Amino acid sequence: NAGVTQTPKFQVLKTGQSMTLQCAQDMNHEYMSWYRQDPGMGLRLIHYSVGAGITDQGEVPNGYNVSRSTTEDFPLRLLSAAPSQTSVYFCASSYESERFPYEQYFGPGTRLTVT
Amino acid sequence: KNQVEQSPQSLIILEGKNCTLQCNYTVSPFSNLRWYKQDTGRGPVSLTIMTFSENTKSNGRYTATLDADTKQSSLHITASQLSDSASYICVVSARDSNYQLIWGAGTKLIIKP
Question: For chain A, which ranges sit under pLDDT 50?
Answer without folding.
Answer: none
